[in-house]
Amino acid sequence: MSEFRQYQVVANGIHQHVMEAGSGPAVLLCHGFPELAHSWRHQIRALADTGYRAIAPDMRGYGRTDAPPQPDRYTIFHLVGDMVGLLDALEVRQADIVGHDWGAPVAWTAAQMRPDVFTSVTGMCVPFAPRGPASSLEATRRAGRHAFYQLYFQQPGVAERDFNADIGATVRRMMWTLSAGPEAPWSGMIGTGGALDALSEPTGPMHWLGTEDLAVYAAAFAASGFTGALNWYRNIDRNWELTAPFQHCAIRQPAWFITGERDPIYPLVKPLVDALPRTVPGHLGTTIVPGAGHWVQQEAAHAVNRVLLDFLRQAHVLQPSLQ
User: Fold this and answer.
1) Which of 115, 47, 84 is nearest to 304 (CA)?
2) Is residue 234 part of a domain?
3) For 127-147, how does the pLDDT look when each residue is reduced to its tens digit (9 = 90+)?
4) Domain count of the fold of the chain
5) Looking at the domain assignment, is residue 323 inside a domain?
6) Is residue 255 part of a domain?
7) Which pLDDT band holds residue 209 (cuts at 50, 70, 90)?
8) What own/partner pairs with CB < 8 Å and gap ≥ 24 does 67-71 have?
């Protein structure tokens, strides 16, 4: 069993905290909201034991990685730059990149912008989305879905107040509400009671997430707060503006998509999932994991590890230059 190593490195102008294990071809793991490098613990172990170097940072604004105070320091260019800078600081020339939730757009965009560095891409729960005539946030506004959580997160300090009121409850409810546990999927809407009130308390055990794991997340957000993490959402419109030059850059590297069958986000993005064979030329396949929710790499670790390792073997046959 490979041992985890944790350290700090200065990359792209910020201190990044990294968890890694193993040696061999590098696999870079990008977590989402509201998570940490710890979210990849099962994949880090499986990858390292199979002959890969698994590298998982706390992303910008999370955990023990720096959280710049300026909201405009969280654009997709900063986030992709962090990953490129991290590999450079580690003297890693090329890597497979894997992203879950918000980490998935980072992974897709990294593959799009730097195919010389990222030789395969795996997205989890959030598929590749071609740049449209307006940002996804503007489309939500035009649809009149003003209570949608991404719009609620736009006002600085509002969601932070809700989540900081009880950090333990925030983490616990977030993990439960978007998991496969609830009978009815979460609608994504925030009512008059605020963001915390829109999330439900667990009505059963979360076998995939122990008390110690919940404590890791709660302690991290108690130390860092939620502003850095929420600032990712506050750049959705700005990201749409900035990415115009890359609108038709195709992802030709080997690509795979994984999501949970019971992820409440899946019905919202299913058209994008179905379109992947057309929108991502390198797309090799999609896996819908039965009985798993949004936290698919934690809820169904063995199934995800099997798919990921199988895909990486295919990708390395197709991209033999990856060393």
Assistant:
1) 47
2) yes
3) 999 999 999 999 999 999 999
4) 1
5) no
6) yes
7) very high
8) 67/224, 67/225, 67/227, 67/228, 68/14, 68/228, 69/227, 71/156, 71/231, 71/234, 71/235
pLDDT tens per residue, range 28-42: 999 999 999 999 999
Cα separation, 301 vs 320, in Å, equals 27
Q: Residue 299 has which token pair?
A: 């809820």
Range of the domain at 12: 5-318
Residue 268 in tokens: 């919202």
- Three-state DSSP class for 33? coil
253 neighbors 282 (Cβ within 8 angstroms) = yes
| CATH code, 78 | 3.40.50.1820
Collapsed DSSP state (helix, strand, coil) of residue 97: strand
The structure's pTM equals 0.97
Which residues have a catalytic role annotated?
A: 101, 294
Question: Is 229 within a domain?
Answer: yes
Distance CA 214, CA 318 (A): 39
Does the pLDDT of residue 249 top 80, yes or no? yes
